[in-house]
Specification:
2 domains; 6-stranded antiparallel β-sheet; about 325 residues; Phosphorylase Kinase, domain 1; two-stranded antiparallel ribbon
Chain lengths: ~325, ~325
């Protein structure tokens, strides 16, 4: 969470003048996003999030990401629209960095979701999957099994053992298992792939916004559900499984988009893959984030604990959990 | 700039329920303040800044700081009011930390003020000095000459030389000069003492808000003007003096509160003191901020350059600069 770049009042006002949104009234750098800087902007017309893309996001992907927001919003999903400038462009450039103006949505992120809230999240995720079917752009999943494997190998056993002595064996064993078990041919389309509580805004029990689609990629819808399950059904550190949240999330999803049997059967493996996805990126960040970076490193072991849970209980919890 | 503490949606909603401000609609951690965490809060009624006091601020000082906001706002100064809870308290406590809900004011901070903007800042500062006269609370200046001296001695010649080889001689010579030249008996009262551009919100050329009074203390009004002069009349790094900004700032101040001759005569020394105040605290932070802290260290040399300017040209620029 950081604001990596300083934008002065003059630059902000100059930028806003390219949009039909009224004059600049207020701008506050907000502590959200690890790959970009964000400001909460108020104009005489409305409020917006201004995002500057700093790292990890390829400018070539922006038409995909920003178009996806517009597509999902147009299909009734609670997703912020991209504000286009007077010439119709979805993003502009300041000092060589791309910036986009995005609709502000009300709501707050919950830390400890209730079952009712998890049901709403499941519904909202399923709605994006249905709407994603008609989105014409696609983006290859760059953080799939091959990438987890490469990242874990690049970290190396010794460095991983420095994080936790148990980590290397767990990670390498899991990669072998996943390589032999990963399903093929499941229904797929554009998925959020990072729907943590941070990325969901809620008003009471209702989802008011799904945000931060910058990991969105074409993947199995059931994998996206598995990522969301891993993100929501445990306490932050993965120590405590929350059965009622898990059940409600799956039920909410299936109330909108019922899973095929072969999707549901694949969920335990997909959930283990979801854990590997975050173990690999967090281990990489843990080992390679400079100590003076303005971000807080996240502990890969939070997802090792989830992985061990899914190894043990995934079939019981997932394979029949959401069946109506 | 940082948010040091995570506050969950439940904690935020629970806090807001103690105030008569409507229900929580949105909360964004904002990247402002180095001694506290801040959130921009929206309720069904209005917007507010929620501040959690983390470091450097003594809870015993809060009634002074928060009462000062109310006093200045009631006297027509563009200062955010403190929102009191249903029991009338100006602040509450979460997990042992004090938090206050403060009025949101529109406006953006300018980087490179124009002369017109500097005139407005001078006016606004002078208005707070006039209004401060009737504020019954007071707070001893803890960052005065004695503190600069102690801080610089605590840093030590060797460590200061590690920042810049010229720094130790400049700092120790200056402390000797100031000890022998510091004026006494100037008009005094509660001063902001930290009125950098960051702490001024503007709408166009008009000051819409003075914020962050957490260094406010009883001191000479002319010293507060000197601090403001040092903060506004140079580029950030102190390399370039901006004559027209300097002249406008002083003229704006005197248009509301004309300086006595002996105050104006003292300005060159007070401005050198203002530089020492920031040299000493920045040197201390530079040497003692852990590398993993979520703050950006500021270079003490930015104020050494200002100091050298005031040594050379302070009398010419300040002693007659603001004379109508």
């Amino acid at each position: 969470m950081a604001v990596y770049t300083h934008l002065g009042a003059r630059e902000l006002a100059g930028l806003i003048a390219h949009y039909d949104v009224g004059g600049l009234i207020s701008a506050k750098g907000i502590a959200e996003g690890v790959s970009n800087s964000n400001w909460l902007i108020e104009t005489s017309g409305a409020r917006f999030i201004l995002t500057m893309y700093e790292r990890r996001i390829e400018p070539a992907d922006l038409p995909f990401f920003l178009g996806l927001l517009d597509h999902l919003a147009a299909h009734g999903c609670p997703v912020p629209r991209t504000i286009h400038d007077r010439e119709g462009a979805a993003y502009r450039t300041i000092d060589g960095k791309a910036v986009a103006l995005i609709e502000f949505l009300p709501g707050v992120s919950v830390d400890q979701p209730t079952a009712t809230q998890a049901f709403s999240v499941g519904e909202a995720l399923a709605r994006t999957h249905l709407a994603a079917g008609s989105y014409v752009q696609s983006r290859m999943q760059t953080l799939g099994l091959a990438a987890w494997d490469m990242t874990v190998h690049d970290c190396g056993r010794d460095a991983l053992a420095g994080i936790d002595p148990a980590l290397p064996d767990i990670a390498f064993d899991e990669l072998s298992f996943l390589a032999g078990s990963w399903p093929g041919g499941l229904p797929h389309g554009v998925c959020h792939c990072d729907l943590f509580p941070d990325n969901v805004l809620m008003l009471g029990d209702r989802v008011s916004g799904l945000i931060d689609f910058y990991f969105a990629a074409t993947d199995f819808f059931a994998y996206d559900l598995a990522v969301t399950h891993a993100a929501w059904s445990f306490d932050n550190h993965g120590r405590q499984f929350r059965d009622e949240v898990s059940t409600a999330l799956l039920a909410g999803y299936e109330s909108i988009r019922p899973l095929a049997d072969y999707e549901r059967d694949a969920l335990p493996v997909l959930a283990r893959g979801a854990c590997m996805r975050f173990i690999s990126s967090r281990a990489d960040d843990w080992l390679n984030t400079p100590p003076d970076a303005l971000v807080t490193r996240k502990d890969p072991m939070d997802f090792v604990r989830r992985l061990l849970f899914y190894r043990e209980a995934g079939a019981a919890v997932l394979a029949g959990g959401g069946k109506p």
